[in-house]
Amino acid sequence: MQSLQSRAGDLKVEQLRLRQIINEKNTASILVGLFAKSPINVQSSAEDPEVENLLKRPVDEIPDASKVSELPALILPGQHASRNAKALQESTADETEDGIDYELLGKDRSQCSPEELDRIRRERNRMHAKRTRDRKRLFTEQMSEICRQLEDENDALLDYLTKIDPDHNFVSSIPRMEQSSPTLAAQQEPFETVDPCSLSDGEVPSNQLSKLLQAATAFEKPATSTAKRGRPAVKASSQSAPAKIPIPDILRSIASSLVALSDESSASDDSHDEEEHVNMLSGPGKRQRTSSKYYSVSSPAATAVGC
């Protein structure tokens, strides 16, 4: 509701700006035509009656939120004197289709039992809630219609301004209301796609293998029949086995090749890691054995010198 009000106010301000620009252009054209030596063709707004009426319309008559009509005041039976009985009957006759018991609401409270008073209170709450919804709906519908009317009028003024001054660039900062709702395709979320190049060598075969295995298990599921409601299920004989859909040979070959590929890649990775581990350990081991040899050779000399 607030957005519609602000939109109508912005459209009204835009129309006033367009009217001011057009009036200035017309005044300048008239002055140029008066003081020009040669006759100049001056395009008047009288050629377009709609534009002429928009330019002559008072500012107070431009539609806005204050022009929205409200719901008529509800007069319940028994609230006023009998002189308005005819008017009351006409007003209540129009409201008989909304599901509100106006006769119950028009009863005298002093002569009602506690149960009737409770019913009257609930019915009155229903009536006020319904009138609030109707008031909001009516305001929204009328404000939307006012916004569309202002948009059409501003477009007509803008077209006329373009005719009298093609070089004038008037840019509207107010977006137009969309008539159609967004399509289902625009509301759908995009699917997530994965680039196979971004995956490692071990992830691509495993993902494909898992998908193929899921497809194979889907083919191998037995075709079971469910019993309909109200009908007994047909029992399968002991000799007949549940029917299975055979797996296509191409799926079997692709799955076996992918399994072999994954096994070879894992085995090559393990052997490569083992060779690196042996190379890392071989260097320090040799140095350690060499140092121990030198120590064993030099030990007798050390003992001889000591002696």
List descriptors:
307 residues, mainly alpha, 61% helix, bZIP, BZIP domain-containing protein, bZIP_sf, DNA-binding transcription factor activity
Summary, kept brief:
Residues 85-136, 221-241, 261-307 are annotated as: Disordered. The chain is built from eight helices and no strands.
Task: Provide structural commentary.
InterPro entries: bZIP, bZIP_sf. This is BZIP domain-containing protein. Residues 85-136, 221-241, 261-307 are annotated as: Disordered. It comes from Fistulifera solaris. With 307 residues, this protein is mainly alpha-helical. The chain has 2 domains: 2-164, no CATH class; 205-215 and 248-300, no CATH class. Helices cover 61% and strands 0% of the residues. Helix 1 (2-35) runs parallel beside helix 5 (114-164) and helix 7 crosses helix 8. The protein is flat. The model is unreliable at 81-85, 180-194, 222-242 and 285-307 (pLDDT under 50).
Structural class: mainly alpha
Rounded to an integer, what's the Rg over CA atoms?
Answer: 45 Å
Largest sheet: none
Mean pLDDT: 68
Total beta-strand segments: 0
Q: What is the number of domains?
A: 2
Pfam family, one: bZIP_2
GO molecular function, one term: DNA-binding transcription factor activity
Protein name: BZIP domain-containing protein
